[in-house]
Design goal:
Blueprint: E1 10-14, H1 24-43, E2 48-53, E3 67-71, H2 75-80, H3 86-93, H4 95-98, E4 102-105, H5 112-115, H6 121-127, E5 129-132, H7 137-140, H8 147-163, E6 166-169, H9 172-181, E7 189-191, E8 219-222, H10 231-245, E9 249-252, E10 274-278, H11 283-292, E11 295-298, H12 308-314, E12 319-322, H13 325-331, E13 336-338, H14 343-355, H15 357-368, H16 373-385, H17 387-400, H18 435-446
Parallel strand pairs: 1-2, 1-4, 2-3, 4-5, 5-6, 6-7, 8-9, 8-11, 9-10, 11-12, 12-13
Helix pairs in contact: 1-16, 10-14, 12-15, 16-17
Amino acid sequence: MSQPHPSHPEIVINGRFLMQPVTGVQRVARELTRALDRLVAEEGLPVALRIVCEPEAQLDDLGLRATTVERATSRWSRWLGWHLGGHAWEQLVLPGRVRSGHLLCLGNTAPFATLHRREGRQQGQRQGLTVMIHDLSYRQFPGAYRLHYRLGHRFMLPSLLRRAAKILTVSEREKAMLAALRPEARGRIHVAQNGGWSTGAPLAEPALPRDGAPAPGYMLFVGSLSRRKNIHGVLAAAVRLAREDGLRTLIVGGGSDILSPIAGEIPADVAHLVRFTGPVTELEALGGLYRDAGCLLFPSFYEASPLPPIEAMHSGCPVVVSAIPAMTERCGTAAVYCDPHDVDDMVGAVRRVLADPAPLAAKGRLHAAHWTWRDQAMRVLEAVLGDAAVWAHENARRIAAGNPAGEGAGSGFLPGETVQQAPCPRSTEGTVSSRIAMLSNSERERA
């Protein structure tokens, strides 16, 4: 591992996410950490990176080359044999290891001691703390989450909005809702849309044994079994399509200790056509499931910058998603949209896609190529370091590549520019009811 230059600004990554089950937030944090490391190791970005994590954290799969790993515990843990992990580690151990670096928290939370240091906000901005708030789903759909999770985040959010030097979020929609909660924070809120498929992750055979996996062409759902993901709507559509079309459905995902339990039962007459796999966290295996699917159905009531639609597009899997603002911002015209409140609309959209999947699959592949983890990492650095530092690096990189104006750059961007997505109607097939507009209004009221 190369040694950082002593004059380079240091970014200290809060490694709490390394000890958590890998869902969307943790996946983004891992991909961003990997992308930041590559920018330093492969492109010579003048930044020193250090990740502080619990002693038991596993980082081998990240392949870090330029990031210093600091495994931290407290002296009380060593002396008394107590284990401080999770929230306790983040609040009691991490603050003492930041030192003069800029703390980057990628998982919705941050240590209060760093936010509320004695010198107040002025000192906090000099040393620096940037937090990524992925979404406000616990406010929009409180019934989907357990009480302890909702209360914890509601307690922390005001401090994050008031005292963090910079706030990152993953869509313009989320930025608007955060700014509505604290308008004076608007200038400190920066959007860094999530990437897509992990660079270099190959597509493999599906994770299920071939004798137990559905034949190619099944309908696929990937996500937590959550009310906000509209899992009950997914099951209702799956049962309809199984009975009327003989279509198989594969449901990939699980619950967690922060989600409210769901109740659902597959009728016996179609139980053999609707299969739950549980979570699939290995990207190679997940890519194989996307590749063999006839389409992805992703009819969430609420999202911020979802990964499954872009992952599916990358693998050539056509996508049906809900017509909500964050989804149109993410998917543009490369998906078919449906009303998440209307099972008939979901079923009809799936049938239209399966009848002629090739055009949408081709459009999706092109669209997915625009979302990269490198671009999101550069957006993060733009917020943390400022536009000038990022622009200087990008300009030098393009000159070295013989492309000073950025012509033909596949995934590059100019710092400060806004990623523009093609406008998308409520439904590419014109079948979505007016309840979509009502959903949007109610979200604003809850924010």
